[in-house]
């Protein structure tokens, strides 16, 4: 029974990403379908959506949600307490450097990846995004696990300077790790090809779950303290979410967040509670 719950729990995450991306893709398709987007326009569009959404979503989580005591306490999933660490202040130099890296990466990705016009088919896009998140999760798992081996650990240490994670820790990487992770993230694009509306949707939703995953909160996409445990424990839990860690037996026991946004956790908690009550009743009757 527990294995079934865990499988459905991870599938819920994948489906939530795929469905959200599909909905957002439809918006981008509506906006850009009748506009001729040349290569440079696509590069600028992809870069702007990724960069602007990263800062806007991160600031919203840190300055609005986490600064509200009621919201923070309601949404937090952290169990293991750690010493609070302030995230470094953004500097103009740091922002410019980061955006130059992002723009160059975007330019290279769109230059090398095959462009495929998939139109606005609901099922086709849903299937593409579902394959995309499963494949991206696997690629990230492999590379992230390698980063935690001795030959490659130095590349990854900058990202682990923070245990008390801020959303913006998601982008706190060494240059070499940034390059490797970018290649890892876009590898499925080279396999499946890309449609610019799909890429825009993917980078927007990807920023949301990545920033949420580093915030120690469980808002909409992140259903447990899976990645938070990776930062506090510095080992195991190498994937985006726990599917591949369960497959390869590298998962730390996680605390799931039940609630209306996470129906599988809610169903599991209610069933477990029912069984616990039943056992208690039987024990008392004996």
TrEMBL record:
BP GO terms, sorted: lipid biosynthetic process
Entry keyword annotation includes Signal: no
Origin superkingdom: Bacteria
Please give the GO cellular component terms listed in this UniProt entry.
membrane
| Keyword Transmembrane helix attached | yes
Instruction: One Pfam family, please name it.
Output: FA_hydroxylase
Describe the location of the Fatty acid hydroxylase domain by residue ranges: 130-250
**Subcellular location as annotated:** Membrane
Q: Name one GO molecular function term.
A: iron ion binding
| Annotated protein name in UniProt | Fatty acid hydroxylase domain-containing protein
Which residue windows are transmembrane per the record? Answer: 12-32, 44-65, 90-114, 126-147
**Keywords, alphabetical:** Membrane, Transmembrane, Transmembrane helix
């Amino acid at each position: 029974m527990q294995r079934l719950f865990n499988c459905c729990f991870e599938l819920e995450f994948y489906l939530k990403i795929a469905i959200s991306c599909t909905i957002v893709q439809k918006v981008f398709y509506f906006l850009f379908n009748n506009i001729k987007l040349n290569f440079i326009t696509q590069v600028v569009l992809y870069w702007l959506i990724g960069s602007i959404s990263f800062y806007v979503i991160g600031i919203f989580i840190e300055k609005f949600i986490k600064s509200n005591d009621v919201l923070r306490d309601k949404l937090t999933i952290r169990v293991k307490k750690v010493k609070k660490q302030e995230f470094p202040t953004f500097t103009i130099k740091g922002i410019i450097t980061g955006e130059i890296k992002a723009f160059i990466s975007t330019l290279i990705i769109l230059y090398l990846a095959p462009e495929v016009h998939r139109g606005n088919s609901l099922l086709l896009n849903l299937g593409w995004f579902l394959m995309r998140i499963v494949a991206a999760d696997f690629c990230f798992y492999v590379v992230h696990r390698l980063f935690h081996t001795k030959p490659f650990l130095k590349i990854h240490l900058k990202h682990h300077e923070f245990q008390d994670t801020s959303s913006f820790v998601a982008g706190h990487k060494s240059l070499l790790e940034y390059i490797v992770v970018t290649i890892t993230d876009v590898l499925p694009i080279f396999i499946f090809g890309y449609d610019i509306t799909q890429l825009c949707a993917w980078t927007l939703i990807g920023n949301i779950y990545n920033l949420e995953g580093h915030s120690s909160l469980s808002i909409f996409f992140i259903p447990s303290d899976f990645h938070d445990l990776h930062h506090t424990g510095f080992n195991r839990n190498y994937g985006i979410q726990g599917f591949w860690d369960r497959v390869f037996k590298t998962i730390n026991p996680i605390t799931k967040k039940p609630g209306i946004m996470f129906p599988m956790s809610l169903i599991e908690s209610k069933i477990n509670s029912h069984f616990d009550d039943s056992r208690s009743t039987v024990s008392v009757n004996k």
